[in-house]
Design a protein that fits this description.
The chain is of the alpha+beta class. The protein folds into two domains: 3-122, 2-Layer Sandwich (Alpha-D-Glucose-1,6-Bisphosphate, Chain A, domain 4), CATH 3.30.530; 129-199, no CATH class. It contains five helices and twelve strands. A hairpin with a 6-residue loop joins strand 10 (180-187) and strand 11 (194-198).
Length: 229
């Protein structure tokens, strides 16, 4: 099963007990009408646990989607549950949301509003191009895929490489002169996972693992790569 996460940076607050107290009673209800039916959508935070390592919990939220039943589209209520964790590393506080990118973005915005009464206090984590390059080159022979952006060639916006041992090819060195690494799929030497990482901190593990192990990987290998400045 593929697991995904996105990592964000908390701009101001560093006090985990205070964050826990603000999120403890978080609950948001919203009424929506679809095809004449009324739905009450609930968002809430459950299963919070604070320790020396950080603060963990689950962000549960409802959404309505439509399914076809006997030739008609019928709205159905579904509840998603996204685990999250706040981790202190040096002077930086990170929020990791273990869900797909779009849902993780929405959850980060809801967290920002709940904690700071406004958007913009929890922002995307960013990995500098040179840092992502060093990360992939530390796993030089195990790089599977590379995407490049910020291309200076006319009419070309992205370049990509697929295969084995990409870092040792002449084409790799040529692409580096024309762009920056945006996305790398590598095999972690320490964990043995095949993992995709983007510069805006979307992390996808393609190997078989469970959520606690994936959380440990993000905490130990991804958070140190992120620039919070």
């Amino acid at each position: 099963m593929v697991l995904a996460a996105k990592v964000f940076v908390v701009q101001e607050e560093r006090n985990l007990p205070l964050i826990a107290s603000k999120l403890k009673d978080f609950k948001l209800e919203q009424e929506v009408r679809i095809e004449g039916d009324s739905f009450s959508l609930l968002s809430e935070i459950t299963d919070m646990d604070i320790s020396k390592e950080g603060l963990e919990g689950t962000f549960a939220f409802d959404t309505v989607f439509q399914v076809k039943q006997h030739g008609k589209m019928v709205p159905i209520l579904k509840t998603y549950e996204a685990p999250f964790s706040f981790d202190l590393l040096g002077d930086s506080l990170f929020l990791s949301v273990f869900d797909k990118k779009s849902r993780a973005n929405n959850i980060a915005n809801e967290m920002s509003k709940a904690l700071f009464m406004s958007l913009g206090q929890i922002v995307e984590g960013r990995i500098q191009p040179e840092t992502l390059k060093r990360f992939h080159e530390a796993n030089f022979e195990e790089t599977k895929i590379l995407f490049f952006d910020d291309i200076d060639l006319p009419n070309i916006t992205k370049l990509s490489l697929y295969g084995e041992g990409l870092g040792s090819t002449n084409l790799y060195n040529d692409y580096l002169t024309h762009g920056k690494i945006w996305y790398a799929v590598v095999k972690s030497q320490k964990y043995g996972y095949v993992v995709g990482v983007t510069r805006n901190c979307v992390v996808t593990v393609f190997s078989r693992t469970d959520l606690p192990e994936f959380k440990g990987y993000v905490r130990n290998e991804i958070l140190p790569l992120i620039s919070s400045g």
